[in-house]
Amino acid sequence: MTTLTKLTNDFDFLTGHFDVAHRVLQPTGEWKEFTGTCTGRTHFDGGVSIDEARFAGGYGLSLRLYDPADENWTIYWVNSRTGKLQPPVRGKWTDGVATLYGEDDLGDRMVPVRLRWTDITEETAHWEQAYSSDGGETWETNWTMDLTRRTTEPPQLDLPKVTGDFDFFVGSWDVLHRRLVSPLTGSDQWREQSGSTSEAYTLFNGAVCVDEVTLPADGAHGMTVRLYDVAAGAWSIYWISSRRGVLEPPVHGGFGADGIGVLEGPDKHEGRPVDVRFRWTTGDVPVWEQFFSVDDGATWESNWTMTFTRRGV
Question: Which domain range does residue 71 map to?
């Protein structure tokens, strides 16, 4: 088991279940009020915070990543209607207040946005969003959330299930790693390692899948966030290392009629541009495999497999 050094507890207060009172500013200048819930958890011993918000008509997901290099947080938002990452905000905590800045996509234009977390207690918290129309000189608050801890899990939403592609992966796993020691060198020397574990769960009733895996050989943990793009009918998969606290370039794709998942995208290996392919086989013992290509996909070299065996079975 790989034990991480705890670098931050900034968002540990969001672990658990909450009732949420929303207020959203309308174009008329009036405020619309409604209620919802959220459930939060952390990964990387506090270095990643995820919460799923539930409200009438849909889900929302906040993904927060702590960068130990500059002690800043990067926060992404995902709406279940699209399944796409929205542009991030970045910032940090000072004197008990988190302030983060970025741009929000309103469809026809981008606007400066500021998010704040304040009034944090063991049972309550306050969040607000503001837009600026003058380049950040002044800000108008347009959405607030007041959170109050609850003792029970929130009820499920009565919404159609969009996909169950990764439902097979929910649970606890022992993981056998097999990695090519020197990819793209012609070497066929592989290293095997056991003693790794993974915990996986879904959100958005299956349209988001998250897992955290221990990587004893690297002295680190890895985390995968999978988002189902509703319009495209495909998955985008992002990798996060506990060493960096940033989203790596995604791969995109899906599962065929044969039940095999294939996803591809561009990346770099040791500074060299590569195309990356992920391949998933399901069943009682799922296997994930990674390939690199340096000839635009004409040929692929396998360099890493993870074989998953369900724990406690």
Answer: 12-150
What's the burial of 169, exposed, middle or buried (CB within 10 Å: 0-12/13-18/19+)?
buried
Nearest to 254 by CA among 238, 235, 237, 226: 235
- Per the structure, the count of domains in the chain is 2
Summarised one tens digit per residue, pLDDT across range 106-139 is 888 899 999 999 999 999 999 999 999 999 999 9
Nearest to 227 by CA among 8, 11, 81: 81
Residues 34 and 121 in one domain: yes
Domain membership of residue 249 (yes or no) is yes
Quick one: average pLDDT of 268-291? 97
**Is there a single domain that holds both residue 189 and residue 302?**
yes
SS3 5: coil
Q: Give the domain CATH number at 76.
A: 2.40.128.20
Last residue of a domain, one of 115, 150, 185: 150
The pLDDT value given to residue 86: 93
**Is there a single domain that holds both residue 136 and residue 172?**
no
255 Cβ contact partners less than 8 Å away, ≥ 6 residues apart: 165, 261, 280
- Per-residue model confidence (pLDDT) at position 81: 94
- For 302, residues 6+ apart whose C-beta sits below 8 A from its C-beta are 180, 289, 290, 291
- Residue 248 backbone phi and psi in degrees, to 5: -80, 160
Whole-angstrom CA distances from 189 to 181, 194, 216, 277 are 6, 17, 19, 20
Residue 2 clears pLDDT 90, i.e. is over it: no
Q: Looking at this protein, which amino acid is placed at residue 27? A: P
